[in-house]
Write the structure tokens for this entry.
Amino acid sequence: MIHLTQADYSRQPWKNGRGTTTELWRLEREGLLLVRLSRAAVVEDGPFSLFPGIGRNLTVLSGPGFRLTGQGHDFRCDPLVPVAFPGDVLLQASETNGQQSDDFNVMTARSLPKPEVIVAQNDVLPARGLLALYTLGPCLANGTAMARDDLILSDRAVTLSGDWPVIAVQLFGLAGLVPGLAQIRS
């Protein structure tokens, strides 16, 4: 199990220059993005950055949420409801009403199987590939104390307990690619 905290994360500007992202974890191979887990804030109506060849999944963590629309797509992004959408389609955020919504983002190369993203609490989560857990408050993961905004990566089942949920992401197709987790079964 790899345990990352806020001290391990980096901030960077959005591709479209309209905000910043806190990158929690990233995996590349031969210079190409395979997986990126990040956190950002949507603070106004406007375009989302384009990421050709990338599938995206967004979960609003706080705030009222917003709508994503464009090119035949219409998604309502409500708190704690994961929403999957293509990264290479021009989408606009709207209905922000001047209120900030913080969100958790999963980006995966289209060459990988689609990730599964759920909100979980007090549960046993199997690792059917790489299991990534982002904590929304203090909890225990296999007995390890996790603080708010921590991220753990595991290739084994994780037992969660505590008063706060986590965003749980099952990532597939990464066997042997994650340093420190050589046992990943994809």
